[in-house]
Design goal:
The protein is an alpha+beta fold. It has 11 helices and 13 strands. It folds into 2 domains: about 1-125, Aminopeptidase (3-Layer(aba) Sandwich); about 155-305, Gcn5-related N-acetyltransferase (GNAT) (Aminopeptidase, 3-Layer(aba) Sandwich), CATH 3.40.630.
Length: about 325
């Protein structure tokens, strides 16, 4: 527990914080969450904290050193004015859910919370702190840069009604569980180093985006495109019945194929989402990538929002003295 000179207390969330915390989370939802349905999923996740059984389970995991997520808050007179969360991955602490009450801006709340999380990342002996931010959010990007974050990639988020089924092409096949470790290694070798180093794929989660959007029971399937027995591309899809939305993740390519083989690679994912009852499909991948962008055009899925992946080395010390209040 810590307090700043402003009288705001910075600590992990408690059950007594939930009433004002819920209101703050709604304020923090941006264009990305609203256009993809992630707002509903996030609200459902945080609403689960009101369940005493869930709260007890999380506290048990924390006691065992296995808490899946830590939520930090800045509290003034019993009211939550700011929040930020961290999920520990293999090499990084992924920062999510950064929000400050609209009536409490410019008091350094976000800066203090991010530095508290950075200390947590260091204590967990991770190498980086990483986060995503909408590229239009210049205020947040400016703050992150002052805290030592640098942009390493830009992701495009393409959203549209679930396309009509596309006929799969030759060489497209599902990936079995026994093949997942091999595929994860291939994806790692074919990702840009700027993404693979801080956020390496694993056989359970081939993309760090999965950590952000899906839970342990979310249905998921993987396919790959091969030529002459060699993997050329991998795509993964997960489906959320609650919001009738599928997320399609083109993961890596040895060289970006042309539109036709890419579209045929996406075909089984589209068919699976549609057969599951999905009415909306979301695809995200690093941009620019002309072949992928043309495939999205063919599937009538326009670019809706872009996000910047920003990374900060964990070895860096506190940056509050050089950061503007936020």
């Amino acid at each position: 527990m810590e307090a700043s000179g402003s009288g705001i207390e910075y600590r992990e969330i408690k059950r007594g914080d939930l009433a004002s915390f819920d209101q703050l989370i709604v304020q923090g939802m941006g264009k990305l969450e609203r256009s993809t349905g992630l707002d509903e999923l996030a609200l459902a996740l945080f609403q689960s904290l009101h369940n005493p059984g869930v709260w007890t389970f999380l506290k048990i995991l924390e006691g065992l050193g296995r808490a899946p997520i830590k939520v930090f808050v800045g509290v003034d007179n019993g009211r939550v004015l700011g929040t930020a969360s961290v999920i520990m991955l293999e090499r990084s602490g992924y920062v999510a859910g950064v929000a400050t009450d609209s009536q409490a801006r410019r008091r350094g709340i976000a800066s203090h919370l991010l530095e508290r999380i950075h200390l947590e990342v260091q204590q967990e002996r991770k190498e980086w702190a990483v986060l995503d931010v909408e590229t239009e959010n210049e205020t947040a990007i400016s703050l992150y840069r002052k805290l030592g974050y640098v942009q390493t990639a830009v992701f495009g988020w393409y959203v549209g009604p679930t396309p009509e089924t596309v006929a799969p092409g030759n060489g497209v096949s599902p990936v079995s569980g026994s093949q997942m470790a091999e595929v994860a290694d291939w994806v790692r070798r074919n990702l840009p180093v700027s993404i693979a180093d801080p956020l390496p794929p694993t056989k359970k989660r081939l993309s760090y985006v999965e950590t952000v959007i899906r839970g342990p029971r979310t249905p998921i399937k993987t396919w790959r495109l091969t030529h002459s027995g060699e993997t050329r591309a991998v795509v993964r899809a997960c489906y959320f019945d609650r919001i009738r939305t599928g997320f399609m993740l083109p993961l890596a390519f040895d060289s970006v194929p042309t539109v036709e083989p890419l579209t045929s690679l996406f075909a089984p994912a589209v068919q699976w989402v549609r057969s599951s009852g999905g009415t909306r499909l979301v695809a995200t991948f690093p941009v620019p990538s002309r072949g992928l962008e043309q495939s999205m055009e063919a599937l009538k899925m326009p670019l809706t929002v872009s996000t910047a992946l920003m990374v900060r080395p964990a070895r860096e010390g506190p940056a509050l003295d050089g950061a503007s209040a936020a």
